[in-house]
Amino acid sequence: MIARVLLLAAGLISLVSAEWVHYDRPSIYSKSTQYTVKVNGTFANTVNYADYDYVQLSMTEGSNTEFRIATVSGSKITGTPVISPKQLPIDYKVEGNELIFNLKKVHYIILKLNNLKELVLMIDRIEDDAPPSKGTGIMNVLNHGADNTGSAITDGIQKALDAAGKKPGTTVYVPPGLYLVGNLVIPSQTSLYLAGGSVLRMTGKKADYKVLYTKSDLGDGTWWIRTAFDSKDIRIYGRGTIDGNAEAMKKDKLIASMVVPVGTTNFKMDGVLVRDSSFWAVIPTQVTGAKLTNIKILNNINGKQNDGIDVQESTAVKVWRAIAIANDDSFSTKTWLKDVGTTVPFPYDPRPLSDVSFDECLAWTRCYGYKVGQGVYTDQNNVVFKNSVVYYGGVGLGIHHKFGSGTARNISFVNMDLERLAGEPGGTGTWLAVFVQDVKKGVGSIEDVTVENVRARSTGKYHGKLAGYNANSYLDGVVISDVYMLGNKTAAKTLGELDIKWTQFSKNVQIKNSK
Ligand SMILES: *[C@@H]1O[C@H](CO)[C@@H](O)[C@H](O)[C@H]1NC(C)=O
Ligand SMILES: *[C@@H]1O[C@H](CO)[C@@H](O)[C@H](O)[C@H]1NC(C)=O
Ligand SMILES: *[C@@H]1O[C@H](CO)[C@@H](O)[C@H](O)[C@H]1NC(C)=O
């Protein structure tokens, strides 16, 4: 059941209604022991998690909705609360153990009070495209034998998907409940709808999954939920949760990517919460045309290689409104060699990547917030990261050309806010790392990089890099404009002021501020 909290205000001419919605907390999760969250006076369901707790809800935009975040212990809030993105217009007040603020618009927000863990507040717009649970064009998984109690692995979802594949245009409906599922393949022209309060979970047993590849350092791996090859018009949406059960899976020696749109065209994913991935979580691979919107990826910050969204060898991919919390990179793009390690199951020959955008994203990682690389085996063209924030990272923005001899060309970072940087993933820790590294797997060029309107509130552990590798693999063409370092109100005018020290084999680097 979805809990709806409705407010009706009768106007003279029309009836205006605002509401917010939260979702049943599945039995396997417990509530936060550190925070309570009240929305317009009613408690919202919180979830206790490894490194942070979280709340997921949806609300009508436009009027002020009050949020009260309180410490469960009752201890008074001391010091300045952390509220990220810092650039949001949030006027808060503190009363005793409560942090109080109003929101008119939906946001993904990371909060931290006192010395408690972080609380991730994920607010989406009210769903306006939820399908009915049954009827024409709908296949409800409960009618295909799915077990929604989580007592045993269930094949009812794949059965419903297979049946749907025979009637293109069908939506497979997953109602609230807990489903332990093996590998899922979504057929062409089929939608998978996960209702809020539904959880698809990996079983924790390797034997329940197909091993698709072996990674030299991490061992056997699978793609948990993927699209059929040569498919089109597939959609995964709703406010349900996809849970990778990482610790149990890794203990049984299997890593998994959660959602793999692969060999497909016109793919859409919206609204879903993905958590606890044991490997790169959401990886559009050899896809032509994809929109990933309102995506929430909550991985363990102490995990391993559990990237948020990695776009691989794909074209025309838009990621809009996403939060990715991960030990490894939050958002990245990659191209690879054929049939090596994780690329073994790729359906097509290696392809270039082009026209990929990440817009309005929030990153929290020990590695890179926003990155091109490390694989640049085939070219990567026209990648833009914009209007996005790093709450915490080792590197804020980067192009790390480490594997392959393709060219990374026309890569932009625009309107980016880097809040806090620390640590040194792979020996690099800085706000901007654009460089070519030689690990005897090929080197190549980086061309036409734009860095525009960036706030580096923190510069990271080491100096920045704008560097090629040798006379054949240059970094050629960088335009930097309006970069504000460490709260300075004047944009930096020199590489020195930008804290960039590594500049070997780079040329045509310009700093052009708008004023
Ligand atoms: C919260 O309450 C305020 C004041 O009554 C109202 O204007 C607003 O629409 C409510 N928000 C939601 C999402 O119901
Ligand atoms: C560079 O990429 C942007 C999209 O990020 C695109 O609009 C623009 O046309 C590209 N420029 C060139 C010269 O291809
Ligand atoms: C702020 O930036 C300006 C312009 O780059 C520079 O001259 C100045 O030294 C900076 N101030 C501080 C405190 O770093």
TrEMBL record:
Signal peptide: 1-18
A Gene Ontology BP annotation from the UniProt entry: cell wall organization
Compartment annotation: Secreted
Any coiled-coil regions, as ranges: none
Pfam families: Glyco_hydro_28
The keyword Calcium is annotated on this UniProt entry: no
This protein's UniProt keywords: Cell wall biogenesis/degradation, Glycosidase, Hydrolase, Secreted, Signal
GO MF entries: polygalacturonase activity
This protein's record includes keyword Mitochondrion: no
GO CC entries: extracellular region
Family: Belongs to the glycosyl hydrolase 28 family.
Protein name: Exopolygalacturonase
The species this protein was found in: Paraphaeosphaeria minitans
Lineage: Eukaryota, Fungi, Dikarya, Ascomycota, Pezizomycotina
